[in-house]
Amino acid sequence: MHIKRLEIKNWLGIKELQFNPGKINMISGDSGSGKSSVLESLEKLFTNKNRRTEVVRHGDSEAELFVELDDQLEVSRKIRTEKSDYLKVKHDSKAVSSTESFLKKLVNGEIFRPVEFVKKTPDEQAKIILNMLDIPWTTENIIEWFGEVPEADYQLHILQFLKQIENGYYSERESINRELNLLKANIEGIKRDLPTNYDGEEWRGVNLQSLYKQLSDAEESNKRLQDAQNLVEGLAIRIDDIKRRADNAGEEKRLDYNRQRDTLTTAINRLDENVRREQTSIDDANRRMLESASHLDSELEQAIERLKLQYQAKKQTAREEIQLASEQSRVFISEYKEQIAEKKSTLSSLDEHERKDLEKISDHKDTLIAAENAKTGNAQNAIDTLSVIDTETLKEAANNASEMKEYLREWERMNDIIREKITPKEERSVELTMKIKTARELPQALLKTASLPIDGLEVDDKGRIRINGTLIDGLSEGEAITFAFKLAKAQAGELKVICVDGWQNLGEDMQNSIIEEASQDDLQYFITETVPGKEFDIHVEG
Question: In degrees, to the nearest 5, what angle opens at C-alpha 150 toward C-alphas 147 and 155?
């Protein structure tokens, strides 16, 4: 099926164009003359796609596109700036339903441009090629293959989709295996800290309280027995010690009272001396007053008359001071005598206090000796009824159990890690390995069910496109162009149309090869060529 007639009006750079295309349609002209507009009009007619935002010619409000095919199919589109677009498809003068999907089927979704394909990235090229591989699948297939609906881009081709799933599972497995390694290292660390062949179940039911109660009871019994033996064996020593301590206490009391007597005697003597000293001062007062008066009289005789009154005052002051000192001495004597009487009274009562204290010490000694004798009798009964218990064995068993119990928490933590973390992760890791294997094997199995568009085209196990074993981005420029044209022919739908933009960029050999092949195949070619300085022109061949 070919294009028989094409009409363009107010579309991009074309004001109005009508022509009847042939097998090879060479559209040439300078840049901006409207060459690409012809190719874009074909894309708009059959796919309703715009390569540019504004497609209606500047200054107009509506563009019209019309095409008639050699089987009498007519397609008319109107693109309006102020109204909704218009589309009409007729075949044998009858309207066609589901027009957009109908038209896209004619070109297998889009009109293929081989030169443009070569300029795309390897990923973009791979996507186009994979979309040409018709491998039907559903979400139910995914659930059947993997037992779940994994997270992935469900818009991808099934081969790319499977690779994405494989990578996702592989990444998850790597993460789980890293976690497993850390957990197992943690387990090994716990094992190193546990005693060799440690079994927590063996020590879980051991009653430490009961073991230590047995040990405590045995130690208490042995202590009572030892205390009893010590009491019996040390009775004489303790009584001698009591007597020695009582004698020491009595001697200390006697020495204390002697010290008190000496202190009081010394105080009395000191106070007596104070009395004598103060009395001497009183007795010497008249003499000192006479001496002072004589001295002042001598000074008075030698002083001038005006100072007589002053020295009389000094004499009076001196007499008053001496008299005051004498009065103070009499007061001191009275106080000292009172203190002497008090201390003599205390001194006379010391003997009675000493006698009473010494009697108390003697009575306390007799009480302690009686108590020791009573304890010794009870101790003898304990010796007769008790026997020594081997506590070392009990202590060793209790301490060992206590030590083993200390490891129980770590042992339980280790088993919890194994049960709750390691085992589920190991199971998930095995499950992921199976899913990864499935994701890797499925593409080859699915490719067997799909027909490849051209000979030599294959999809490797990583979802990459190869041509005769070579990756797309590894092809030479000539090989890439040749492959692109083969792909374009394989991609073409019922409308056998290929658009070639940028003919001037192809080498002469490539151009000749394309023209030669075009003359032999059943496709219709629309080719644009930029020729500087040339006006827009369409050359139709065939």
Answer: 125
Q: Does domain 213-398 have CATH number 3.90.470?
A: no
Distance separating alpha carbons of residues 106 and 104, to the nearest angstrom: 5
DSSP 359: H
Which residues on adjacent β-strands are paired with residue 63?
79
Residue 403: partners with Cβ closer than 8 Å, 6 or more residues away? none
- 3-class secondary structure, 24: strand
Residue 431: pLDDT over 90: yes
Q: What is the pLDDT of residue 182?
A: 92
Maximum Cα interatomic distance, the chain, rounded to a whole number of Å: 175
Torsions phi, psi for 49 (to 5 deg): -105, 140
Averaged pLDDT, 202-223 = 80
Summarised one tens digit per residue, pLDDT across range 11-61 is: 998 999 999 999 999 999 999 889 999 999 999 999 898 988 899 998 899
Q: Give the pTM.
A: 0.50
| pLDDT for the residue numbered 19 | 94
Phi, psi of 407 (to 5 degrees): -80, -10
DSSP 335: H
Which DSSP letter does residue 416 get? H
C-alpha triplet 473, 476, 479: angle, nearest 5°: 100
